[in-house]
Design a protein that fits this description.
There is one protein chain. By secondary structure, the chain is an alpha/beta fold. It has a single domain, classed as 3-Layer(aba) Sandwich (Rossmann fold), CATH 3.40.50.10680. The protein contains 13 helices and 14 strands. The longest helix is centred in the C-terminal third of the chain and has 20 residues, at 294-313. It is globular. It starts with a strand and ends with a helix. Bound molecules: ligand FO1. Ligand FO1 binds next to α2 and α6.
Length: 322
């Protein structure tokens, strides 16, 4: 094992780069912190969509088209639930249901979310370590012109259609970061922190809203590199660009970089954004950020690692983080 890399990730977009990193790093050198702001209780099950997307992606079980849930899934449970008049807006596949049932059983028996995630990771044969951002509940909520919505109500039930006026991360202020993650961030061993190309508002900022997390990333000696989730003003998938406009933030790679400016050493933008003006002190790295194939994921992972290594070799990172 060489020096570990810490990746901060949400679901589908983040999992793509995480997979690339896991394939180019030595086994065991990648530690992932997953967003749990999307977690919710549904039909009596404790559901952690982003942790599951990461686990399914890393174990090769993910559905490649949807990005969430399992490949070759069957939907008998959903059909039976529909016949009984139950809620079907959030689709739980038959095999996926086993994850939620097992997580719920273990949590009810008193295990922490991190312990449950670790058990599931081992059972699925995933070598990459995966930690939730906290064992304490943090819930992303969105205010529209008329009401506050729970995350999955907004995201899945209402298909991100309502205009978002404000976002809150309920519980984040009091949530504790995972001690293993803080140890890594405070130690000398870390090669890099990678902020994946996930939705800044829905996937990355819930993690950064935990005060210990943001402070430890800002103070860490390892280089911090983020990848833009925006290419030429558009999100690859999901509501990032729409949400930025609704919140009065320009939908651009540079605007994403500005949100993380106090943390970053380098920011990777797509070739289409080669002219992006980044905050002072943040190195602009230009590459192809669209990840359609496994080859794309590995290539972007190598670009990110090379960016981190060139930052740590220079004096600037040390200057900014005495
Ligand atoms: N996303 C959908 O758009 N529709 C669904 O019915 C749905 C079900 C679902 C079940 C389990 C799971 O782990 C994820 C699921 N997702 C679904 C994805 C998920 O809600 C979002 O992609 C994330 O929360 C955003 O990262």
């Amino acid at each position: 094992m060489s020096k570990p890399v810490l990746a901060i990730a949400g679901g589908i977009g983040g999992a793509k780069l995480v997979l690339g990193l896991s394939r180019v790093l030595e086994q065991g050198d990648l530690v992932v912190v997953g967003n749990t702001g999307d977690d919710f209780n549904h039909l009596g099950f404790a559901i952690s969509p982003d942790l599951d997307t990461l686990l399914y992606t890393l174990s090769g079980l993910a559905d490649p088209v949807r990005g969430w849930g399992r490949r070759r899934e069957t939907w008998k449970f959903m059909a039976a639930l529909e016949a009984l008049g139950g809620p079907t807006w959030f689709r739980l596949g038959d095999a996926d249901l086993a994850m939620h049932a097992e997580r719920t059983r273990r949590l009810a028996a008193g295990e922490s979310l991190s312990a449950v995630t670790e058990a599931l990771r081992q059972k699925l044969g995933v070598a990459t370590r995966l930690l939730p951002m906290s064992d304490d509940p943090v819930r992303t909520r969105l205010r529209t012109s008329t009401e506050w919505l729970d995350f999955q109500d907004y995201f899945v039930r209402l298909r991100c259609e309502p205009e978002v006026r404000e976002i809150a991360y309920a519980g984040a202020g009091a949530a504790r970061a995972m001690p293993q993650v803080l140890d890594l961030l405070r130690g000398d061993e870390l090669r890099a922190v990678v902020i994946c190309p996930s939705n800044p508002f829905l996937s990355i900022e819930p993690i950064l809203a935990i005060p210990e997390m943001r402070a430890a990333i800002a103070a860490c000696r390892a280089p911090v590199v983020a990848v833009s989730p925006i290419i030429a003003g558009q999100a690859v998938k999901g509501p990032t660009a729409k949400m930025m406009r609704e919140l009065g933030v320009e939908a651009s790679a540079a605007a994403v970089a500005r949100r993380y400016a106090d943390l970053l050493d380098a920011f990777v933008v797509d070739e289409a954004d080669a002219g992006a003006i980044l905050p002072e002190g943040v190195a602009r790295i230009i590459g192809r950020t669209l990840m359609l194939t496994l080859g794309d994921r590995k290539r972007l992972a190598r670009i990110v690692l090379a960016a981190a290594d060139s930052c740590s070799a220079g004096a600037r990172a040390a200057e900014r983080k005495p």
